Amino acid sequence: MIGNKNNNDTTKLLNEKLGSEPFLIAVHRGSSMGNIIENTLPAFYAAIQSGADILEIDVVRSSDGEFYIFHDGNERRLLGQEKNIREMDSVFIESLNYRNNIGQVVNYKLEKLENVLTNLKGSGMLLNLDRSWDDWETLLPFLDQFDMADQIILKSPVNQSCLSILEQHPIKYPYMPIIKKLEEIDEVLSYQTINLTGMELIAKDTDSVFFQDSIIRGIKEKGLFIWLNAIVLNDKDVLYAKYDDDQSIIKGPDYGWGKLIEKGCDVIQTDWPSLLNQYRQEISKKMKRG
Length: 290
Fold this sequence. Notes:
The chain is of the alpha/beta class. The chain is 35% helix and 16% strand. The longest helix has 17 residues. The protein has an eight-stranded parallel beta barrel, surrounded by five helices. It starts with 7 loop residues before the first helix and ends with a helix. It is globular.
């Protein structure tokens, strides 16, 4: 059973999903191809149709306090803008049009967080809100009005500011820290009233402490899920020992996703949900045969 005993209502959906599949599929920014643009409702609908259990969604706050779905740093590629979106006000943001996957300007604008939450409420989808932690003081009260604590998983790096906000907030959203150092595990565990549900582990290579079975097993024994990343952001940043989407597609799923499953992960984040879901179905069939 994942989650603190006092927060069973907020972890019910998460537990149901974890109990129904060999592992869960988290889709990075939704599924975007052609005219379907990342971090938009169409991308989330495409991900759901491709087998997603969790939608990874980037949240950003405008200069005048409005929340949008966007990964800052991608303004030039997606919007043709040089300025960071956090420095833009909502009037300017809503005047912008997206560029699609071949760089053409299309008649689609940024999604407001409110619109995405309203459309996905009650969908059975878990929503992992990424990139939002700098704005939690205003974001968490904003989220409260949607009554979606059972669908939302918050994440952040391990720092005192984030953990204190979570500790003090009355609604205990499921929380998953991004773990890069061993001491961060104990730091997170020291906060007794946070609804800690899982940990995202980062391992540069197979020598990393977070590639060791004993560490992974110890985390799972605390009733926490393990989230591993198969996504490839670039050629430099390795998220889990290069057992990733690229290896899974070029060499075969056993060489990438299969290794993550062997490590005992409960969630795999991917940019290729339909292929990973196909692999998961094959694994499920083998498990049923015995």
